[in-house]
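REQUEST FORM: STRUCTURE PREDICTION
Request ID: SP-0412
Submitted by: Lab K.M.
Chain count: 1
Length (residues): 414
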Amino acid sequence: MDGRDPLAGARVVLGVTGSIAAYKAVMLASALHQAGAVVDVILTREASKLVRPLAFQAITHRPVHQDLFHLLAETEIGHVTLGHQADVVVIAPATAHTLARLALGLADDLLATTVLATRAPLVLAPAMESNMLLHPTTQGHLRTLRDRGAVIVEPEEGYLASGARGVGRLADPAVILDTVRMVLARRGDLAGWRVVVTAGGTQEPIDPVRVLTNRSSGKMGFAIAQAARDRGARVTLIVGAASVPPPRGVELVAAPTARAMHAAVLHAVADADALVMAAAVADYEAAAPAAQKLKKGDGSLILELVPTPDILAAVAAQRAAGAVPEHLLVVGFAAESCDVLAHARDKLRRKRLDLIVANDISAAGSGFGTDTNQVWFLDRRGAEEALPLLPKLAVAHALWDRVRALRQQEVRAG
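STATUS: Completed
RESULT:
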């Protein structure tokens, strides 16, 4: 994958069936195409009554397929060729009728025969009326398809075509798109890795209302988790306070305070391949948080602070004691406002890190809450590298490139 979007260059067969939600498949086809996928759309007869082939053809710049026995070339039967070429088959929306046909292995139209002819992974996004979805027969077909390896994008709750409110709405196209990415990422260069990423800031209570915190948005940590996910890793994302939503498809662990994050990290790294500590963990906490809200007085308020647990030091101690995998790679961050490289080198040595990512939070475009970052990578072997100002997702992919290189160096060394 080498840091690319898993969809870039992927061959996607998009099956569209006869649900009123078929119009949303046009948006999904557009998103797949914009991500760089080659999209072949198969419309069932019922779907073509709801949305015209030209809508998909205009978006994908490819012919839309409907006929079971159509020829792509003189020697190519459509369902066989499409099935063999596909990297993933996506059916969105998938009706109850379609789920039944797929579960039974019927081959009565182009879409059903393509699914039988392919060995590519299958992603299904059901959409139907609530009673149809919850009927034991439909649920049984979904279980059968899951057991065969199909990935189900669960329908959402909301207003349905009938006017009633319930479960059965087609999942948001962005959710389906992310699911397809995760399925394709199984062939990525971090496939088989289990990684732990921390993100956001911690909030240390002063009283039931007030906290000590920082300006971390969580954006950098979330980008690191997303990049690892898109390269095939199984990701545990330990999150403090954040101002943006986390990526989908990762295991989320809430850790609002430094002590909670300390416990969560030590638990998660017990079987991890890499830990990336991107969270801005508070260095101090109140020595004795008040049980009741503090009232404003006439004089000053003196608050006694004590150090929070040092998470990276605890991980280093666990490594030394053999309590974590010997091959665990540990990455720290140094967000500094002066003497950036000197502080980063010192932290790299003191915390016994494999890699540290340093940035100047006072630099334009590189502080908290921005969508970009300008960083240096410093590793345990003494290598130092400066990156230009980049989007945070690009920085995240560059980070995983360096982590993989460190692992390969370890393997070669022995």
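NOTES: Residues 189-413 form a domain with the Rossmann fold fold (CATH 3.40.50.10300).
Reviewed by: T.R.
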